Amino acid sequence: MSAQDRIDHESLRVICQALGGASSLEVLADNMNGLLTSTLGIKGSTLFVLNPNTRELELLASFGLSNQFLNKGPVIADKSLAQAMEGQSVIIPDTTVEKDLQYPEETHAEGIKAIVSLPMLGSGEVLGVLRLYHDQVWEVSQHDHDILLLLAENIGLAMRYTRVLNALQSIWDIVSSLPDGWERF
């Protein structure tokens, strides 16, 4: 399959509106996975968040993939398409010839023929990865690659923003529940 653009201006507008309108990290992740899967016409999508203590990529949300595939085992950041953890995109247009998959048997059993892994950055730090899975060999166009990279970065920024908002809301809730007179201290 030759590389063709799959993301047009209208699709990008809808995706960006969903990105900006999310009320929580989970809603953001669910919206992004569903929209990207349908817009790109691919098998599925996942958002993983890096656990800095274990160096595992923890599943935040997924769309289009089986529970068996999602529960295949821990996704180790330094073993699973590790270049994404260095801030680089990883494109595997054909998994049948790729030798560097952490779970090759499970990938093939799931019917995944192509993977795109993009770093989600927040303030220059890799917070996790956006992974796109296709059931066909997939040559990603440069146009779509550039948009997906920007989108992954914006998801990272939205994740950081959502975390800050949630922390501020928790602080506000605590301060609001203090008895009268405590606010002076």
Automatic annotation (TrEMBL):
Record-annotated GAF domain positions: 24-169
TM region positions: none
Recorded coiled-coil stretches: none
SUPFAM superfamilies: GAF domain-like
Record InterPro entries: GAF (IPR003018), GAF-like_dom_sf (IPR029016)
UniProt name for this protein: GAF domain-containing protein
